[in-house]
Amino acid sequence: MKRFRQIAVPVTGWLLAVAGGLMAQDEAVNPLVIRPLAFTPNPLFKEVFVHDPAAESPAVATGIKSYLNHQSTKVTPSGDRLVFTTSADRSSIGNPEQRIAEVVVPAGTKSAILLFLPDPGGAKSRWRVLAVADSREAFPAGSFRVFNLSPLAVRIDLEGKPFGFKPGQGGLIENPPMGPTEHAAMRTFAMEGKEWRPVASGMWPDPGRARVLQILYRDPATGRIQLKGFDDVPPRAEPATPPAAGP
């Protein structure tokens, strides 16, 4: 059975700021697994440092890659935010020359892709970050996870079946329709005025046991709606939950 789940996500223009608590207080000691991902093909910062602004804990070094694989970084946040800078020194949190971005990860998230989006608006940080939960439940094998960061309604047709996304809306396409060659004919449209205008077309291969992140956005240089995809690896096995302590 083909399934399609929609996710409401707030956006400002074509950029998105994620809101929500990082995790409940009693889960604050649990590690959060992150995979920083650059929206641009050549990330400016190959190594950055993750700071917990709510605690005096040491910064954790990580990298911002232009692709997804199994490599990840574990952090143990005590508050509701993570701040990324170019230095391990805690003072870099408040230094606009060293501060890159900050993110608030939705409550209950234990593993996430952190997609770094350029922020042309002169905000406090140089980048906005989209937090994408990537657990087996949130982003299962064989699915497409779509986020519409554009200001227009968009529609993706796979093998003629439409999947619609309002501005600021995300969705999960599970068991996507495929043609006889294990590829789906894809056509994407944006609602301009009262008409659906074509944005992109092509063939999407079946993800198999892997999955694909698809981002719709408005190109600030051309004003046109664009579609950008990131191939991901199969979801990791969830760590076993330790048994409760006895009396």
Silhouette: globular
Q: Helix share of residues? A: under 10%
Task: Give the terminus-to-terminus CA distance.
Answer: 45 Å
Q: How are the strands of the biggest sheet laid out side by side? A: 1-13-10-16-17
Q: How is the biggest beta sheet arranged?
A: 5 strands, mixed
Query: H/E series, N to C?
Result: EEEEEEEEEEEEEEEEE
Could you please describe the fold and organization of this structure?
This protein is an all-beta fold and 247 residues long. The chain has strands at 3-8, 32-38, 48-51, 60-62, 73-75, 82-85, 99-103, 111-118, 127-133, 144-148, 154-158, 161-165, 169-174, 183-192, 195-205, 211-218, 225-232. The strands form four sheets. It has a five-stranded mixed sheet with strand order 1-13-10-16-17, with no helix packed on it. Strands 5-2-8-9 form a four-stranded mixed sheet, with no helix packed on it. It has a four-stranded antiparallel sheet with strand order 4-3-6-7, with no helix packed on it. Strand 11 (154-158) and strand 12 (161-165) form a beta hairpin. The N and C termini lie far apart (45 Å).
Provide the descriptors you would attach to this structure in a database record.
single chain, 247 residues, mainly beta, five-stranded mixed β-sheet, four-stranded mixed β-sheet, 17 strands, 0% helix, globular
